[in-house]
Structures are given as structure tokens and as C-alpha cells.
From TrEMBL, chains A, B:
The keyword DNA-binding applies. This is HTH tetR-type domain-containing protein. Residues 8-68 form the HTH tetR-type domain. Residues 31-50 bind DNA. It comes from the Bacteria. Keywords: DNA-binding. InterPro entries: Homeodomain-like_sf (IPR009057), HTH-type_TetR-like_transc_reg (IPR050109), HTH_TetR (IPR001647), Tet_transcr_reg_TetR-rel_C_sf (IPR036271), TetR_C_16 (IPR041678).
Length: 185, 185
DNA sequence: GAAGTTCGGTCAACAATGTTGACTCCGACT
DNA sequence: AGTCGGAGTCAACATTGTTGACCGAACTTC
């Protein structure tokens, strides 16, 4: 194999520098030259390694959720557990989510956001539900979950942000629970 | 008065051209030169009239909601009415909402989105509610409402988009109603 | 060991972007 | 008549993503 020693390390330098910058500054506000500088290399090399800024973005911005907590909880506590999961989702997840939302003006990034929404929220919930409208309920719960992240992070609702976490978990938990397993009033 | 005849008309040409382009192509994908061409004028004039592309964006992208339908409906049908309102919100409102969401990487646009969320959803609902937790319920309902628009337009959930409108109104209506006026189970 | 090929790296350049400044022009007021 | 202010035009600037030309080193092949 031809020398890959140096290439791998610089490629990874670019990758991690890009991930950090995209998370903290978003897609449009981070420049290829910034990434190159942070990685200690040349802007041209960034493009050479990842073809384009957009592909680099797509390669670095992955949002995953450990869905074990959603699987091992009894069905009647699924809403509460999901609420906990969402409100504990801080740090890097926030940056990735916002970068995807903000960048989704770009078609490919929009596709990525759609996929993320699907297999981050819809699918795990769908697997826990049964009944003819299980799909619909899963999608609605996913929309409610996304709505929480939207209100907190995208819209920046100060009222919700300042709320006591326990109360928010409780209220949003029962709300999600009602969507997932409706009370047949 | 000094000649304002021509200036007003070109200024309005720029305004409407910008509004249309921002709505259909978003903030980052519409260029000042495109706006100028559409308005039949010069890129420099666009900046001269509106100081910057961002200020032009803020001046054109306003999202308003006719909240009368939320005021004249009995309280126990507020959720359903809100769901109808959200799902009828098509056309230009969709473009403005998406432009704000996508552009809110920019701090000033983020402020605008926060204000819009506040006085489009939170305030009208807050006014219809009473009780010690009225503010919280209004904010949560606003988050759910935003979540619907997020799932439909930002994430582009195909499952929800293909759903029967009447069923979506019914399901989301009762969901919102439960948030606004909780059943004390 | 010599030649050659392939890849990482550097540099300069390109087109397109938002924005600015210099300059012209024309209508309005003194 | 003259001057003043704002609208319009044009050329330029810095910055953006991206490309192509070159260089050097390491591995392969004879």
C-alpha cells in the first residue's frame, strides 16, 4: 500500500476539526479555510479528501441515539423515558441537530435530516408499539419530540429553557405517553 | 419633497423580489444579484436601500397569523381549531417559516424566529388560558404546534404528509386540546 | 540500483458572493 | 442660474468554495 500514514492522520485532523466547527458554528458560518487552519493543513487538501464542503459536512454530522433506554422500559413509562432522553440530549447532539436543521436548506442535508428524524425517533418508537395505528402514533410522538427540540433549541423558547427539568420531564413525559398509548377516554 | 417617485417603486420592486426569492429559495441560496436582476436594478442599489442582505431579509420575512379563529372558538375546541389553522397554513407561510428556520443560524434571524414563535403561538394561546400553569401550558402547546410544522416541513416526514387531513386535524386537535386543557385523569 | 508511478502536500488562480466607493444625472429648492 | 441631495451605474474589493499545476517522497517494477 502506498504511504497512508500521514494521509490518515491529516484526514482525521480535518474530520475532527470540521466536526467541531460545524457543531459550534453551523454549516454556512464555518469556512473551508477555517477547517484547514484548525487542522493545520491546506484548504485545497480539505476538498481533495472530502470532494466538497457539503460532503464533508454530511460525513461528519451524524446524530445517533442510544435507544436501549427506550427498549428496556415498560411500555407505560415509555413517554417519560423519552422525555428524559430528550432533555439529557445536550452538548454535541445539540450542535449536530442545529447544524442539520440550519443546513437543511441544502437538499442533501435535508435528506440527511429526514433520515435522522426517521431512524432516531420514528423507528425506535414504532418498534415498541402495536395496533393498526401504531405507525401514526409513532410519527406523532416523533413530531412531538422534535417539537420539544425545536422549541428549546431552534426557536429558543426562554420560558421552557428556564423551567425545572423535573417538571418538564413529567409534563412532557405524560404528553408523549398520551400520544404513544392514548387513554381511551 | 425630493423626488421619491422612482425610488419608492424600485425599493418596492426590490422588496417584493426579495420576498419571493427568500421564500422559495431560502436565505443562503438567494443572492443579492438575483434579487437585483429580478427587480430590474443594480446589486449596489439593493444594499443601498436596505443596508445589507440580512436586513433586507429581516424586513421582508414576516410571519403573521390571523388569530381571530383562535379567539372566537369555545375553549374546548381550541385544540382542534389550532390544528386546522396549522394544517391550512400553506403557500407563503411555509416559505417564510422555512426561511426563518434555515436562516436562524444568523443571530438576528434567530431572534426574529424566537419573536415569531412567541407572538405567533405562545401569546395567542396564553390569552385564552387561565390558572397558575397557564403560561406553561401555552408554551407546551406552542412547542407541539411548532413540532407539527417541524415534522411536516423541516424534517419532511412523508408519513405525516401523506396522511388524511381530517384525521390529522382530529388527532392533533385532541392532542393539542389535552395540552391546553388537560383531562384530570 | 534506476526508472516510473502514485499519492500527499503547497501554491496560485478561478468564478461567485456581499459590500463599498467614485462618479454621473436629474429633480427640487434658493 | 446655481447648488444640493438622492437615485442610479460601474468598477473594484475581500472572502467564499473549488480547481489545476507543480513538487516531493515512497513504493513498485525492471
Amino acid at each position: 500500500m502506498l504511504q497512508t500514514g500521514s494521509s490518515v492522520s491529516t484526514r482525521e485532523s480535518i474530520h475532527s476539526a470540521a466536526a467541531q466547527l460545524f457543531r459550534s458554528r453551523g454549516y454556512s458560518r464555518t469556512t473551508v479555510r477555517q477547517i484547514a487552519a484548525e487542522a493545520g493543513t491546506d484548504p485545497a487538501l480539505v476538498i481533495r479528501h472530502f470532494k466538497s464542503k457539503e460532503l464533508l459536512f454530511l460525513e461528519t454530522m451524524h446524530l445517533t441515539l442510544d435507544d436501549e433506554p427506550l427498549l428496556d422500559v415498560p411500555l407505560e413509562r415509555l413517554g417519560e423515558r423519552l422525555a428524559e432522553l430528550l432533555l439529557d440530549l445536550g452538548g454535541s447532539a445539540r450542535g449536530v441537530f442545529l447544524a442539520l436543521v440550519h443546513g437543511s436548506n441544502e437538499p442533501h442535508i435535508h435528506d440527511r435530516l429526514r433520515d435522522t428524524h426517521e431512524h432516531l425517533f420514528v423507528e425506535p418508537l414504532r418498534r415498541r408499539l402495536s395496533g393498526p395505528d401504531a405507525g401514526i402514533r409513532a410519527r406523532m410522538a416523533a413530531a412531538v419530540a422534535g417539537g420539544l427540540l425545536y422549541a428549546l433549541w431552534v426557536a429558543g423558547d426562554q420560558g421552557l429553557l428556564r423551567m425545572d427539568r423535573a417538571e418538564l420531564v413529567s409534563r412532557y413525559g405524560t404528553l408523549l405517553q398520551d400520544v404513544l398509548t392514548p387513554r381511551t377516554s
